[in-house]
TrEMBL record:
Name listed for the protein in its UniProt record: SRPBCC family protein
Highest taxon of source: Bacteria
Pfam families in UniProt: Polyketide_cyc2 (PF10604)
InterPro entries in UniProt: Polyketide_cyclase/dehydratase, START-like_dom_sf
Lineage: Bacteria, Bacillati, Actinomycetota, Actinomycetes, Kitasatosporales
């Protein structure tokens, strides 16, 4: 279990971490006792994702799309205590049925984030990973960094830890559904 650092702890930490422009990434993996086909069906149903996330509130396909395909777009509505509420348009940038689903948030050429699920048959079940990259395009995090540029590395670190906890929780919920 990853825990949040308190304000006092943050003030005492020596920061040599990533800056937003570094496009920091993280990945979390889990093994699921279910066949890849069952896990894939859950991963590809983006309408399930708000039920698996505290931050993502709703999603809807755009432009008549009803399922993932390279170039398909969807609208996501999110909420965060520190950032408020916002909407983003995501673009499917990688889609290999049964293996990979990835999307870029906002501009695919300069995304504010990239997210990727990857599945691999393993030990009679499925290894599922969720990977994400911050930046390089502007996001709500950019606004916070603009306000406090001297705290950029702390801001990035804290947001990555939030994403790490959220991804671990999402993967656990997918695991529970797939194994049920």
């Amino acid at each position: 279990m990853v825990r949040s650092l308190g304000a006092e702890e943050l003030a005492d930490v020596e920061w040599t971490g990533a800056r937003y422009a570094d496009k920091p990434t993280l990945e979390v993996r889990t093994w699921i006792d279910a066949p890849p086909e069952r896990v894939w069906a859950l991963v590809c149903d983006i309408t399930l994702m708000p039920g698996l996330s505290d931050e993502l509130q709703s999603v809807e396909w755009l432009d008549g799309a009803a399922a993932p395909a390279v170039g398909a777009r969807f609208l996501g509505r999110s909420r965060h205590e520190a950032f408020g509420e916002w909407e983003t348009t995501s673009h499917i940038v990688e889609y290999e049925p049964g293996l990979v689903l990835a999307w870029a948030v906002e501009d695919p050429a300069n995304p504010s984030a990239i997210w990727r699920f990857r599945l691999e048959p393993k030990d009679g079940g499925t290894e599922l990973s969720e990977w994400m990259q911050l930046g390089p395009g502007r996001s709500g995090l950019s606004v916070a960094i603009d306000r406090m540029p001297e705290r950029e590395q702390k801001i990035v670190f804290v947001r990555l830890r939030e994403f790490e906890r959220a991804i671990a929780s999402t993967l656990e919920k997918i695991k529970e559904r797939a194994e049920a």
